[in-house]
Specification:
about 270 residues, alpha/beta, Rossmann fold, six-stranded mixed sheet, four-stranded antiparallel sheet, 10 strands, about 35% helix
Length: about 270
């Protein structure tokens, strides 16, 4: 386990049309931290996440994931180390059936036979997917929430050491959202979660990073940042709904979901 599995220094990135998406990002995340990444649309969240597994490469500055600098010869190792769940699951699911999609990643890692079956079963159970009902279903015929859970299962089956999620609660109904929160809380791995769902951030993450126009506007305690109404309003964010009713502790004991994922050895 690396002490700082994500280390970013002076990261700049501009799109071909000249839009400056990132403007000198310095960021260090420790092993097993769960960190929320928040900000208004266009603040640079998705662009930053795309630098963590080589979808985008640094134009200036450095990105180091585990012991691997972000450069072309390290991409295979980095993509095994970092599991990225896209905001839109349709961008991630491409195999004919649910089972084939979940199995695709570990198969490309060389996993096969009983170990492949075990990984796929455990990862599907972890996200509450009904194996008997869904394993042979065409992914295009699933609901948005089911697609999101299949995408997460496929990433978990690869046993990453870092889990990066872009708007993980989007398209989920309240029950599925609660199950997702319980699952993420049970996983003993480093997590970076970009989200507009500030209540999810409040429940899951002790630390929050606020992006604004490609800059880190604030980095600190989730409870302190998300209770600062003036700061949030200035950065086009709103107080979590939780603050309109009695506050519940951010830190909850792991639920039964922990048992489902323990054998993944994450």
């Amino acid at each position: 386990m690396h002490h700082n599995p994500i280390s970013i220094e002076n990261l700049y990135y501009a799109y071909p049309d000249g839009t400056q998406a990132l403007r000198g990002i310095d960021l260090h995340i420790k092993a097993t931290e769960r960190v929320a990444l928040v900000g208004a649309n266009g603040s640079g969240k998705s662009t930053l996440l795309s630098h963590l597994n080589g979808i985008l490469m640094p134009q200036q500055g450095t990105v180091v994931v585990g012991e691997y600098p972000m450069d072309p010869q390290n991409l295979k190792a980095i993509r095994n180390f970092v599991g990225l769940v896209f905001q839109n699951p349709d961008d991630q699911l491409f195999m004919p059936t649910v089972w084939e999609d979940v199995a695709f990643g570990p198969m490309n890692q060389g996993c096969k036979g009983e170990e492949l079956t075990r990984r796929c079963m455990i990862s599907m159970q972890a996200v509450d997917l009904d194996l008997a009902d869904l394993k042979d279903r065409n992914t295009s015929n699933l609901s948005g929430g089911q697609k999101k859970r299949v995408a997460i299962a496929g990433v978990l089956a690869m046993q990453p050491q870092i889990l990066v999620l872009d708007e993980p609660s989007a398209q989920l109904d309240p029950r599925s959202r609660r199950q997702l929160i319980e699952l993420l809380r049970s996983l003993p791995i480093t997590q970076l979660i970009a989200t507009h769902d500030l209540d999810l951030a409040l429940e899951l993450c002790d630390r929050t990073i606020v992006l604004n126009h490609g800059l880190i506007a604030r980095d600190g305690s989730t409870a302190e940042i998300l209770s600062d109404g003036d700061f949030l309003e200035k950065h086009h964010l709103e107080l979590p709904l939780s603050y309109s009713r009695p506050y519940c502790s951010i830190n909850h004991a792991p639920t039964a979901y922990a048992a489902r994922v323990k054998s993944l050895h994450l």
